[in-house]
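> example.struct
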């Protein structure tokens, strides 16, 4: 009897409670998906701060693009674009986008960890609640104009990614880094002395291309994306503003061209200048890849009429099997010639077909085998390249060529030398 009564009592007590919990449960979740949206997602939409997407997307897309002013419309918009997995909301594509991490640059992941975690937990919680609500799940489709999404097409979004920009950085700047690295690479002997005298900002060049690019982008004073040619990264080595390293660029030399090209590329991307895929520059797939080296080449005793002119050497390798010179140059370099100091000397940048065996080897270590080589020399006698940084050397600038035996031992003390008098047409 006692047991029956207590059973009844608990039954009477529990049933309404269960009923209450269940009915309040549905109401709660409806209310709370809207609450979570209002408290944790809408602030992302309203904030002036960029979302974690900027770690990899410099322009073209942001988490804000996917958010509409109400919870319900945002959910329907994401659902209609296939970004929500209704049955396993934790596997939704929008969460994959938020949780993208950089495999090459863990440092950048850390920088964005806080905003990413906040976005990810807010979206996961909100989606979980939305997906349990049959009314939301089955709400009618939005019309295409009501969908919230980036205004730029996928091609533009891809182009504005940091990994694409890093490729451009490796191609344009990293292959020319020998012009600056002695003084500017963080931790080198020379660098440590200069840091002591001038401060930490001298160490803008880091161990890898990715770290260096990230530093240059974050350290806003070195790049002027509104006036690319006024960037300190160009003005200092041009000595248009005082530079502790002296004049390291001539406007129009390969170093200036590379740095300027990348700064222009970066500036157009962050200024969101590309709207349609047809606005994007054509990529030159045949362009040779550049590799910075510690191999020095010297033309001894240049004639008076080359004095102070920009001089470019291109080096070709003898192909012993085909019994002819290779058709593409294997190395290139340029710099001002000096008759007074009786020399033109510089490190060479090695050139290889993209994705070739050579390119893979030089990625590890840039070296040239000893053997028979040909050097072609061009001199910018009229200052044409200095007037137009995009101009290239032409046939009329060709002053001659010479065959030579190159042993290409690395280092300043082991230069490969050719007498300028041997350069003939
Ligand atoms: C760690 C780097 C990284 C982060 C952070 C990142 N993405 Fe991406 N995103 C990529 C990569 C890489 C691709 C190309 C994926 C592919 O090709 O499969 C991509 C592609 C995309 C695309 C599709 C365009 C295409 O290439 O097909 C969209 C849209 C997108 N991301 C949006 C976002 C949004 C929104 C965020 C922030 C919530 C974000 N991404 C955060 C690296 C990232
Ligand atoms: C011989 C050493 C040396 C070489 C080589 C050199 N620099 Fe410098 N650079 C310095 C010194 C010293 C400073 C610090 C004093 C100053 O700001 O001028 C400096 C400062 C700079 C700064 C200012 C950094 C900042 O955040 O304030 C930039 C930019 C720069 N150099 C660019 C270059 C570039 C680009 C090259 C290669 C083309 C280069 N430098 C080659 C010695 C050098």
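> example.seq
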């Amino acid at each position: 009897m006692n047991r029956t009564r207590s059973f009844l009592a608990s039954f009477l007590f529990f049933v309404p409670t269960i009923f209450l919990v269940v009915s309040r449960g549905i109401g709660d979740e409806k209310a709370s998906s809207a609450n979570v949206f209002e408290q944790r997602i809408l602030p992302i939409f309203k904030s002036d701060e960029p979302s974690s997407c900027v770690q990899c997307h410099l322009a073209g897309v942001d988490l804000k693009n996917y958010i509409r002013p109400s919870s319900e419309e945002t959910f329907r918009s994401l659902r209609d674009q296939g970004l929500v997995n209704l049955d396993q909301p934790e596997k939704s594509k929008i969460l994959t986008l938020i949780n993208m991490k950089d495999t090459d640059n863990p440092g950048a992941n850390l920088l964005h960890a806080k905003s990413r975690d906040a976005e990810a937990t807010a979206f996961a919680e909100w989606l979980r609640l939305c997906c349990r609500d049959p009314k939301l799940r089955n709400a009618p489709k939005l019309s295409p104009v009501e969908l919230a999404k980036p205004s730029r097409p996928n091609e533009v979004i891809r182009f504005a990614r940091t990994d694409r920009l890093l490729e451009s950085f490796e191609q344009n700047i990293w292959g020319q880094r020998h012009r600056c690295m002695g003084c500017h690479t963080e931790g080198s002997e020379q660098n440590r002395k200069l840091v002591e005298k001038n401060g930490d900002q001298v160490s803008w060049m880091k161990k890898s291309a990715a770290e260096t690019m990230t530093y240059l982008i974050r350290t806003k004073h070195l790049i002027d994306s509104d006036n690319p040619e006024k960037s300190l990264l160009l003005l200092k080595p041009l000595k248009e503003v005082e530079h502790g390293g002296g004049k390291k660029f001539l406007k129009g030399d390969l170093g200036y061209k590379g740095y300027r090209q990348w700064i222009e590329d970066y500036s157009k991307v962050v200024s969101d200048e590309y709207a349609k895929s047809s606005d994007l520059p054509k990529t030159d797939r045949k362009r040779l890849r550049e590799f910075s080296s510690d191999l020095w080449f010297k033309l001894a005793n240049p004639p008076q009429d080359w004095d102070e002119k920009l001089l470019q050497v291109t080096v070709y390798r003898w192909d012993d099997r085909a019994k002819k010179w290779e058709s593409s140059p294997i190395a290139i370099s340029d710099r001002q010639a000096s008759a007074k100091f009786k020399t033109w000397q510089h490190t060479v940048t090695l050139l290889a077909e993209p994705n070739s065996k050579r390119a893979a080897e030089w990625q590890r270590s840039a070296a040239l085998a000893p053997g028979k080589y040909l050097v072609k020399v061009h001199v910018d006698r009229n200052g044409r390249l200095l007037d137009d940084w995009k101009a290239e050397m032409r046939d009329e600038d060709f002053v001659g060529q010479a065959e030579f035996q190159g042993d290409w031992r690395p280092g300043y003390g082991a230069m490969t030398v050719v007498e300028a008098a041997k350069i003939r047409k």
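> remarks
The two ends are 120 Å apart (CA to CA).
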